[in-house]
Target: Pentatricopeptide repeat-containing protein
Amino acid sequence: MDTPHSPYKQYKPPPPPPPPPPPPPPPPNSFTNPIKPFPLPPKTLKPKTHKPIDSHLHRLRRNGRLQDAILALEQGRPIKPRTYISLLQSCIDSESIELGRRLHSSAAAPLEGGADPFVGAKLVSMYAKCGSLDDARKVFDEMRERNLFAWSAMIGACVREHRWEEVAGLFACMVGEEVMPDRFLLTRILQACANTGT
Model:
């Protein structure tokens, strides 16, 4: 039995072995570490488009600021056909053919008779009621599509100016394009026939 003064040393266990090194990283094409997809290019930004200003133009028109409304329209902002028609009606109410011409030549001119027959009919009416039947006929002749409103506006303008023979010619063209007159237009045509004796 050992004593405190025994020549034999007390046994000590050896230190634990060091931990094994970490495993090497998996190859890039393995399922555990798939290849990262190529980054997509950033989305192309859409060009900014101006919002329609119809409500602003209606507000100016109701406040009697027709010239300011046309000035705003000349900046090239898009509007709806019905807004264009309401501005043309304001030109008729004010009997201002100069403002009507500015409106016709404004940036919204693609909305006119070549693209929208209702706008074209209103242009015809505007020129005729503001005293320029020749301009009204020019717009009418350039229209690609002429509805009943366009025919009524043009024939009605000729009736007001007592151009009876022109009314008869327009009616013949109207029948040729298979457009049927309503009772109001038919009354005007009969009036023209009575004055020409046809």
Q: What stands out?
A: The chain has a mean pLDDT of 79. The radius of gyration is 42 Å. Residues 50 and 92 are 29 Å apart (CA to CA). The first helix runs from residue 54 to 62.
